[in-house]
Write a structure and sequence with these properties.
The chain is of the alpha/beta class. It has two domains: 198 residues, NAD(P)-binding Rossmann-like Domain (Rossmann fold, 3-Layer(aba) Sandwich); 219 residues, NAD(P)-binding Rossmann-like Domain (Rossmann fold, 3-Layer(aba) Sandwich), CATH 3.40.50. It has 18 helices and 14 strands. Strands 3-2-1-4-5-6 form a six-stranded parallel beta sheet, with helices on both faces. It has a six-stranded parallel beta sheet with strand order 11-10-9-12-13-14. Strands 7-8 form a two-stranded parallel ribbon. β1, α1 and β2 form a beta-alpha-beta unit. It is globular. 49% of the residues are buried. It binds uridine-5'-diphosphate-xylopyranose. The site of uridine-5'-diphosphate-xylopyranose (UDX) has 19 residues, from α9.
Length: 439
């Protein structure tokens, strides 16, 4: 099928290359010329395991190209909208300007029978409004909402092997025709037995924000338990293991630590609250404000813990920060808890050295006031404390014996409950972690 993908960020670029991998003829459109040039030369503009290989393969097949010109989407019959919906400055609501701009420029190329499939995370009600616009300008063109659940670090796998397909459709014939096109484009995924949820626009839009709200709530739940563990001397990791054995609860997303960040969970729960307020249903989501608060308190607690282990003052103390991306296997530093902590430590007088296997260039660009070094050993050189803030495998696998020889004080703070405490303590380190008793 001939398809276009509007917006080539994490979501769109991976979606475009994946659709070409599935055999479709794809053009990816983005307004950012530099990004388009990089993608066209098979260079990924962001770090995502497996993506560059997929991109090279898809470009090599001749089925994928990128362009800044919306006119190149004219031949496509299915147009995926994959642009970002960041948080508005100074408010909780989502900024829909990129979605609006994508829709407006698509109107110039749409033909009767074409389907616009929205994948961006939008406030409930957006699809119905855009559908009116599309039908009003191009009679016979259709709109569906088809949310995407990909996780950074697993974006390729999640796109090619999603755990569900959600179609939000218009009622009647339009919905049936849209469904047929979506089933055709996802034929391989459908044939693999992937569960499908076929529903209306509002439900499809809400599936995404509800899913992210649930995940954020699960993380904040265990982090609230961590606060209690700190007050009682209990151990949050064992607590999570024990409650996680109940398969109604499950162990996934119960990793206590610095909490959630990134380009999705924080802004999505806030946009959901804002939209609930507009709909007169704000009470239903006031708990998300607490979820957000618990999450933010973890960052403050981490800084306090660092001060505590540095004998009560951060002034002039050398602190190594291992990991700065919002999670491992990503170079994304949007709302990164690790960077938030690193910056607070520095503002409070510590001499901070940050390192990250992938996010170094992004930090240098966006946080020039922070010192970034290439390796964990450089960061920890003569350090008074080492903080593990993003649990990359290479940090989890550090040898505490060898690593102990580069620091001044063998003090480690495990912000992600990811290190083998016994090994580090056996190597003479004092080990502290959020939600666990001191050594
Ligand atoms: C999330 C959703 O998982 C995905 O379905 C959606 O499409 C986009 O948002 P992503 O932002 O890539 O994906 O990251 P995710 O793996 O969900 O992690 C989010 C944050 O939660 C990270 O900062 C991570 O470190 C943190 N986290 C995750 C925890 O603190 N504890 C956990 O147990 C799990």
């Amino acid at each position: 099928m001939k398809i276009s993908v509007i917006g080539c960020g994490y979501l769109g670029a991976v979606h475009a290359a994946s659709m070409a991998e599935l055999g479709h003829d794809v053009v990816g459109i983005d307004v950012d010329r530099l990004k388009v040039e990089a993608l066209q030369q098979a260079r990924a503009p962001f770090y995502e395991p497996g993506f560059e290989e997929l991109l090279a393969r898809s470009l090599g097949s001749g089925r994928l190209r990128f362009s800044v010109d919306m006119a190149d989407a004219r031949d496509a019959v299915l147009h995926f909208v994959c642009v970002g919906t960041p948080q508005k400055r100074g408010e909780y609501a989502a900024d829909l300007r990129y979605v609006e701009a994508a829709a407006e420029s698509l109107l110039e190329v749409l033909k009767p029978g074409d389907l616009v499939a929205g994948k961006s995370t939008v406030p409930v009600g957006t699809a119905a409004r855009l559908a009116e616009l599309v039908r009003g300008k191009v009679p016979g063109a259709m709109l569906a909402w088809n949310p995407e659940f990909l996780r950074e670090g697993y974006a390729v796998q999640d796109t090619l092997h999603p755990d569900r397909l959600v179609y939000g459709l218009a009622p009647g014939d339009e919905g049936q025709a849209a469904r047929a096109l979506l089933d055709e484009v996802y034929a391989t995924i459908v044939a693999a037995g992937t569960p499908q949820v076929v529903t209306d626009y509002a439900t499809a839009e809400m599936v995404k924000t509800a899913a992210n709200s649930f995940l954020a709530t699960k993380i904040s739940f265990i982090n609230a338990m961590a606060e209690l563990c700190e007050a009682t001397g209990a151990d949050v990791k064992q607590l999570a293991d024990a409650i996680g054995h109940d398969d109604r609860i499950g162990r996934k997303f119960l990793n206590a630590g610095l909490g959630f960040g990134g380009g999705c969970l924080p802004k999505d729960i806030r946009a959901f609250m804002a939209r609930a307020g507009e709909l007169g249903a704000d009470q239903a989501l006031t708990f998300l404000r607490e979820v957000d608060n618990i999450n933010m308190r973890r960052r403050i607690r981490m800084v306090e813990l660092a001060r505590e282990v540095c004998d009560g003052s951060l002034l002039g103390k050398r602190v190594a920060v291992l990991g700065a991306a919002f999670k491992p296997d990503s170079d994304d530093i949007r709302d990164s808890p690790a960077l938030n902590v690193a910056a607070q430590l520095q503002l409070q007088g510590a001499v901070v050295q940050v390192t990250d296997p992938a996010a170094g260039d992004n930090i240098r660009r966006s946080w020039p006031q922070l010192d970034v070094v290439d390796t964990a050993e450089e960061a920890a050189h003569r350090a008074d404390a080492v903080l593990l803030l993003t649990e990359w495998k290479q940090y989890r696998d550090l040898d505490p014996v060898a690593f102990g020889s580069v620091v001044r004080q063998k003090r480690v703070l495990d912000g992600r409950n990811a290190l083998d405490r016994d090994r580090w303590e056996a190597a003479g380190w004092s080990y502290r972690a959020l939600g666990r008793r001191g050594g």
